[in-house]
Amino acid sequence: MSFLTLLPTFFGGHNHASHPSETPSKGADLAESVPLKLRSRSNDVVDLEAQAGPAPLASPRIKAHHGESTARQQFQHQPPSLFMTLLVVAVWFASNIGIVLLNKHMLGGYGFRYPVFLTFCHMLACVILSQASHASFLAANASGFVRVQPLQSRVQFYKVSTLATTFLLSVVLGNVALRYIPVSFSQAMGAVTPAMTALAAFMLLGTMEQPLTYATLIPVMVGIVLAAGFEPALNGIGFLACFGASGARALKAVLQGILLSDQSEKLDSMNLLRLMSPVALVLLLPAIALLEPGAPSVALHLLTSQPGFLLLIVGNSSLAYIVNFTNFQITKYTSALTLQVLGCAKGVVATVVSVLLFRNQVTALGALGYFLTVVGVFAYSWTKKSAAKQ
Asked: Which DSSP helix (H) or strand (E) runs through 38?
């Protein structure tokens, strides 16, 4: 039995079938849920108590289930407070900027030049903290406000593994880029992701956007050309890595819509991160052995010789999980357009702070190029939202 065969069990999934093409038995689900629940033809769980109303002689078990369902509905429809919205936005803003600056500090100024091993630490933190957070949320919310979505089949595991590969590729290449190029240029290059997403959607799905939406990508591309052409610290490896990271992010976004299109297989962002992280961790082991065999010994030496390195690596890795967690939370408190605006603002602030901290030179035309990419991304998001309303 191979290690990959055991991974679905680790994720909490049920091995319903011995062949990837087989689906879980609905009869088994029905036998487990009667008399409280029944599955409809659309494979949705039908709550008999919620439909028929409380019976005069309802059992305590049914009453408890009904109370949990009502409490969950009230929780989901409760409008977020202004304080919580501002808090989530502030944490999201700080964590997204902090992780970029910390990565650059470790891979550049600090001298720990092992981006693949650093990504391994990030994924290890995501595995530990995602499992711990789901367990703690479930313990604190006995009514089931936090839903844990286990893997349903081997087929779904293979789909999640495919997404994990593209996700991992984007993270590794992004870290590799920060070893060679300034944060300001990496932020400008990251703005090309919407254009790559539109291209990937057209090539894989045949999806066509409105002409105005494509027009908004022109300033993005012009800005990238200016930023790259007038970047004093331009490095070929860093440029290609940053470009590849944007492409991998775009590919993952499109593949996620394709592979998880089945309603029974849809996963929210936090559950998807919880399931992808162990796969990414396994994939990184041979990559470290091949590309960075000396990284573990160097890390161990720094841990024993420099006490501050432990705080730095733990803080950096934990921040990687917080970034993903706040990315999930902020979508619940803001709109998609607000998120794009915040993303543009985050990129600008990260660029300014990085220039002040790392003293990298920025030309006037390079700054103009970055400004054009920010304007283009904002216009792209606006036209996409307007087209969706029509």
From this structure: strand 37-39
The number of folded domains in the chain is 2
3-state per-residue secondary structure call for 118-175: HHHHHHHHHHHHHHHHHHHHHHHCCCCCCCCCCCCCHHHHHHHHHHHHHHHHHHHHHH
Question: Which residues share a beta bridge with 4?
Answer: none
Which residue, of 33, 51, 74, is where some domain finishes? 74
Hey, what amino acid is at 34? V
Cβ neighbours, 10 Å, residue 273: 23
Return phi, psi of residue 380, to 5°.
-60, -45
Give the H/E segment covering residue 39. strand 37-39
One domain, residues 44 and 88: no
Q: 367-380 burial string, b = 16+ CB within 10 Å, else e?
A: bebbbbbbbbbbbb
How far apart are the C-alpha atoms of 293 and 287, rounded to whole Å? 9
298 and 331 co-located in one domain: yes
Give pLDDT tens digits for 86-96: 888 899 999 99
Say what the alpha-carbon torsion angle 46, 48, 50, 52 is, to the nearest 10 degrees: 130
Residue 135 is which amino acid? Answer: A
Q: What is the pLDDT of residues 205-221, one digit of tens each?
A: 888 888 888 898 898 88
**Whether the bond into 60 is cis, omega within 30 of 0:** no
Name the nearest CA neighbour of 275 among 104, 161, 180, 105.
Answer: 161
